[in-house]
Structures are given as C-alpha cells and as structure tokens.
Write a structure and sequence with these properties.
Blueprint: H1 6-18, E1 25-29, H2 33-43, E2 48-53, H3 61-82, E3 87-90, H4 95-102, H5 113-132, E4 137-140, H6 150-161, E5 168-169, H7 179-189, H8 201-207
Parallel strand pairs: 1-2, 1-4, 2-3, 4-5
Helix pairs in contact: 2-3, 2-7, 5-6
This protein binds iron/sulfur cluster.
C-alpha cells in the first residue's frame, strides 16, 4: 500500500477544496508572524481563515504580546493588499499552566518530549474551539519551523481532530516547496520582528 507523506496529503486535500463552490473555513493555529507569513500567503486562496493565537507557552507576557502584535500588523497589511478578511482570535495568557506542565521536563532539549507536551496542550484547545465553533478545517503553521518535529505535529493534531465527527484535518509540511526560503524573504522585506528563542522560559534560558 502506498504511504503518502504529510505534504502529499496536503496537496491532495487542496485539490479537493478547489472543487468546492465556496471556500471552506479554516482555524489556523499561528505561533508567531515569522512562522505564519508564508503559510498565510499559500492558504489564503483556498480557505476563509481565522487565526487562533493560543500560545501561553511564550514567556514573558511582553513577548507574548509582541509576537501577537507583529502577527496582527502582518495580517492587517495582507488583508488590505489582497482585499481579504483573515480574522484574529487571541486567547488569554495562561503561562502558569504551561510552566507547571513543561517544568516537569525543564531539562529537555528543544524538540523532545517537553515540546510534544507543549504542542498537545495548545492543539487540544485549538481543536475543541474549532469543533465548538463549527469550522470546516484545522491546521497549524508550526510545521514550517526547522526546530519543530513535523511528523509529531501532524500526528498529535490529527489525533485530536479524529475524535470530532464534524472537523477535517489539513495535513501540512510548510517547509516544502521552498517554504523556509520564502518565509525568510518575507521576514527580510517586511523587517519583521523575529525572536531568538522558541517561546517557553526553558527555551529562553537555553538560548542565552
Ligand atoms: S521549546 Fe518551544 S515547543 Fe518546546 S516546550 Fe518550549 S515553547 Fe514549547
């Protein structure tokens, strides 16, 4: 039996979406503007996008707000330029909850178990929100990051989506088709703020 990669599954799903009479709705998890700029450009032609910013892993609060504001500026400009209406949903900051959980694996290197716990906490909330609010699709931009485990992201998210009858999962690997290089070009052109650590207090210490 042929096994499809996550990128091939993505392409296949886009072909299905193109056949529809109207764009389906997509709740897109975005962690920051640098990771989101290229996926948003790619997806805007196929979906009515709402961005879900639920990244209470980010420490401290000022950094949480700075990343959100950078994303908001990018999205507002894109909406104006493309005459589209990407919406932004910002969740309350609940960093203590993340610190309690991730602190159990504080000495892990980035990309290991601590990160899988971090993805899971954010993605469960994302999928519950999408299901409750009747979105058609769910996806996360985080598969673009070099430091993130694309296979685990897809596996965890797909696992939550499979428990909901009314929701579809959009597999992704935004690194493909030169995604990283395209994102770097946008970041440079837009003079976009780009952080030097992943987000949690443990990754901040690791980066110093
Ligand atoms: S390094 Fe990033 S993904 Fe990993 S636990 Fe910290 S914030 Fe989450």
């Amino acid at each position: 039996m042929r096994v499809f990669t996550n990128y091939q599954k993505f392409l296949k799903e886009i072909e299905e979406v193109k056949k529809l009479d109207k764009k389906p709705s997509l709740l897109l998890h975005c962690c920051c503007a640098p990771c989101s700029c290229y996926p948003l450009l790619l997806l805007k032609d196929y979906f009515n996008i709402s961005i879900y910013y639920n990244n209470s892993n980010i420490y401290p609060l000022s950094e949480y707000n700075l990343r959100y504001d950078t994303l908001k500026t990018y999205v507002n400009n894109l909406n104006k330029k493309e005459k589209i209406d990407i919406k932004l949903i910002k969740k309350d900051y609940e960093n203590e909850k993340f610190n309690r959980l991730l602190g159990k694996r504080k000495d892990d290197k980035e990309g290991s178990v601590r990160c899988f716990m971090c993805y899971a906490l954010r993605y469960k909330d994302l999928v519950d929100y999408a299901s409750k609010n009747h979105y058609d699709y769910v996806c996360s931009v985080m598969t673009i990051s070099r430091q993130k485990n694309e296979k685990m992201i897809n596996k965890i998210l797909e696992g939550y989506v499979s428990k909901k009858n009314d929701l579809k999962y959009l597999y992704s690997n935004f690194k493909k088709d030169g995604g990283l290089e395209k994102a770097q070009k946008i970041i440079k052109e837009e003079k976009m703020y780009s952080q030097n650590y992943c987000g949690c207090m443990f990754s901040m210490r690791e980066a110093k």
